[in-house]
Automatic annotation (TrEMBL):
This is Photosystem II protein D1. InterPro entries: D1/D2, Photo_II_D1/D2_sf. PANTHER family: PHOTOSYSTEM II D2 PROTEIN (PTHR33149:SF12), PHOTOSYSTEM II PROTEIN D1 (PTHR33149). One of its GO terms (cellular component) is chloroplast thylakoid membrane. One of its GO terms (biological process) is photosynthetic electron transport in photosystem II.
């Protein structure tokens, strides 16, 4: 049941839930956090809490 919830949540946000890499890096190598990163991190936190 949790795998279906994971699949639905990742498809809803169009993210792969197992991607821990940052999305955007500028020309000097600094990480730019986007809303996708924040949602992805919150999504992973929710999945950890379910376990």
């Amino acid at each position: 049941i949790w795998f279906t919830a994971l699949g639905i949540s990742t498809m809803a946000f169009n993210l792969n839930g197992f991607n821990f890499n940052q999305s955007v890096v500028d020309s000097q190598g600094r990480v730019i956090n986007t809303w996708a990163d924040i949602i992805n991190r919150a999504n992973l936190g929710m999945e950890v809490m379910h376990e």
